[in-house]
């Protein structure tokens, strides 16, 4: 099965079983990195957190579909923007990994080795794009 179908299938399981996962994803992020929570103090209605997460999902799907041009543009430009929000280096990878972990947990016994491999490949691409470009 193609990478894009494997990602779509796992994300379909996620939305069917867990609905809106914004709360789950950020709870996990702030449990691991409590210092990040204060960055979102201005986001009183959760709108920024919601749209950030949906952009991240879109990037992952775009990378799975290939060639990932949209993801490349968004991740690279957001990486630069996030420097101005004091988001430490390495956090994009953390965020994408949390999305995979939440998806895997919710999929439970329906998570397959092929899904694991598809996610590993997409996360490797996302991680590569999250590195700063050489000056
Ligand atoms: C742990 C990792 C991350 C942290 C801590 C973080 C933090 C933030 C913060 C604090 C803001 C609000 C900035 C402001 O308006 O003052 C923001 C906005 C945003 N972030 Fe992130 N970010 C992370 C990862 C990502 C990733 C991986 C993406 C996309 C692929 C992304 C996309 C966005 C977008 C599009 C916005 C603007 C949302 C809007 O205003 O509608 N972020 N992020």
Automatic annotation (TrEMBL):
Molecular function per GO: heme binding; oxygen binding; oxygen carrier activity
SUPFAM superfamilies assigned to the protein according to its UniProt record, in alphabetical order: Globin-like (SSF46458)
Protein name: Globin domain-containing protein
Domain Globin span(s) in chain numbering: 25-124
Family, as annotated: Belongs to the globin family.
Any Pfam family matching the protein: Globin
InterPro entries xrefs: Globin, Globin-like_sf, Globin/Proto, Mb-like_M
Species whose genome carries this gene: Hyphomonas adhaerens MHS-3
Keywords, ordered alphabetically: Heme, Iron, Metal-binding, Oxygen transport, Transport
